[in-house]
Amino acid sequence: MDQIRPFPPTDLIDQAEEEDAIRLAPAVELKDWVIKNFLTLGGELHNPDHDHIAELLHDDETFLAFAWASSACMAKKRMVLGQCEKVMFNQGGWKKARQEQQMRDWFGYIPVYLITIDASFCENSNDRDFCTLIEHELYHIGVERDEDGEIIYSDHTGLPKHHLAAHDVEEFIGVVKRWGANENVQRLVEVAKQAPFVSEKNIAACCGTCLIN
Ligand SMILES: [Zn+2]
What we know:
Bound molecules: zinc ion
Distance between the termini: 14 Å
Oligomer: single chain
Structural class: alpha+beta
Pfam families: PhageMetallopep (PF18894)
Largest sheet: 4 strands, mixed
InterPro entries: Put_Metallopep
Organism: Acinetobacter tandoii DSM 14970 = CIP 107469
Strand content: 15-25%
């Protein structure tokens, strides 16, 4: 079976190396693949946690867009392989116009959220690591919930209210070592003990890598 998961354009990384700079490119086919597999009922990797994203996309395709970056970047001395941002141009005038033009030239619209993925990582990563990275970024688009866990809908649009979500768990190993696991770390440990929900079969079905039996 051929690889059917989206791969970055082959010239992106070469061109970036030539220019000794990071190059970016729209990843329209990646968005289509994510919608089909993660955000559609019955999709191989469908996760109801993201149904609110699907609902927003169903109403307005400009809600989300994807881009490839030719290589990882460094932030807080860590390698960043993916990034989810709420698209905001703070400056006005020509700076804002130029940034908005870039989005329109790439996608035909200005997205509400933009997920950027390291192309060089994706070129070499296995299917599970690739899917894990994509889903990590999707989880950064959070939905507002009330005390009972029900989704809060906007009075204005009638759609789920969303925000850029922080990680569920952020802790230093040294702190856990010295002081023990807090509630969130304990939850993570419990979940990590279970076998992963997504099977190799699911991954093979939408990424196209042969299963080794
Ligand atoms: Zn993250």
